[in-house]
Amino acid sequence: MLLHEGMQEKLKSFTGYSRAQAFRLKAKYLSEGISSLTDKRQGKPKELLTRKQRDKIIEIVKFKTPDKFGFASDHWTTGILGNLIEREYEVKYKSKTSLYIIFKKASFSYHRPITRYDLRDEKEVAEWQKKARKKLENLDQNTVVLAGDEMILTTETTIQKVWLPQGEYPKIEVSTGGRKRRSVYGFLNLRIGKEHAFKTEYQNMFVTAEILKRIRNEYPNQKILLLWDSAGWHKGSVVQEYLKQDSNIEILHFPRYAPEENPQEHVWKNGRSAVTHNRYIEDIDEATDDLVKYFNQSKFNYEIAGLGLIS
């Protein structure tokens, strides 16, 4: 009743239950009836590991990595830890709670992993960084340095963690009218931190060539060093023909499977966080226009090949 009447702030003080616990109880009651509300706990649960065994496991977690025990990973997960405990002591936990406690005892905290491509070649990335750094440090001061990339915005709501006052909860509306999408081409001027963003319907070599013409209009008389990846629409015949006609645009491709080397990727993340995450996108064009406006009115100071703004 408290949930239904929107009195979440009184829920905890009246019942001792959090909002999430109340929702779980409601769901169980609707599916199992009154028996779901009985307390099935039977005192303190039995310790499956002895104190000595638990201390040993905590020591392993703190000072060793899973690959030392035959696992194909150098990072601990609940699955790996549970498997190790079962293998060493023939003990299998029914829930992850006990594993969480072990990680906390070892002073570990949960982190979302950064995406890393299995085809990434660290040697190739290191060589590219060295080459790019040398080139950027020896550029003519009048050369414009741009980092380019493309992103896609859809009407599908994307959600991040948010901070709210206690007792308030986020409500995320989700479109049910089918997904619509728009593309954005972005170019970050690495000398001054200025962004050039353009909304398009598609990403292909014809659109790319037209966008390059718009970039040329921004810098009509300057040489341009453009850094971007090896996407097919960057290398298409129409794009190559345009680059032949404009001999003042030089291309430097980023290493394969290393998007984090491109500062423009960080611009996308910044814009999504500021404008479109947690937003109900009803009008895809309005949302894309807002995003492009944010990009073009903001300044972004990101590193490239270990260098800050190119001086």
Which short descriptors sum up this protein?
Nucleotidyltransferase, domain 5; 5 strands; 12% strand; five-stranded mixed sheet; 311 residues; alpha/beta; 3 domains
Concise overview:
The protein is α/β, with parallel strands linked by helices and 311 residues long. It contains eleven helices and five strands, in the order ααααααβββαβααβαα.
Please outline the helices and strands.
Blueprint: H1 8-15, H2 19-32, H3 51-63, H4 78-89, H5 97-105, H6 122-137, E1 144-154, E2 181-189, E3 195-200, H7 205-218, E4 224-228, H8 232-235, H9 237-245, E5 249-253, H10 263-276, H11 284-297
Parallel strand pairs: 1-4, 4-5
Antiparallel strand pairs: 1-2, 2-3
Helix content: 40-55%
CATH topology of the largest domain: Nucleotidyltransferase, domain 5
Shape descriptor:
extended
Rounded mean pLDDT is: 84
Architecture of the largest domain, according to CATH? 2-Layer Sandwich
Biggest β-sheet description: 5 strands, mixed
Helix and strand run: HHHHHHEEEHEHHEHH
**Which strand order spans the largest sheet, edge to edge or round the barrel?**
3-2-1-4-5
- Summed up, the domain count is 3
Q: How many H/I helices? A: 11
Query: Helix/strand-derived class?
Result: alpha/beta
Q: How many beta strands in the DSSP annotation? A: 5
| N→C terminal distance | 63 Å
Query: In the CATH hierarchy, what is the class of the largest domain?
Result: Alpha Beta
Kindly provide the radius of gyration, computed on alpha-carbon positions and rounded to a whole number of angstroms. 27 Å
Looking at CATH, the homologous superfamily of the largest domain is: Ribonuclease H-like superfamily/Ribonuclease H
Poorly predicted regions are none
Beta fraction: 5-15%
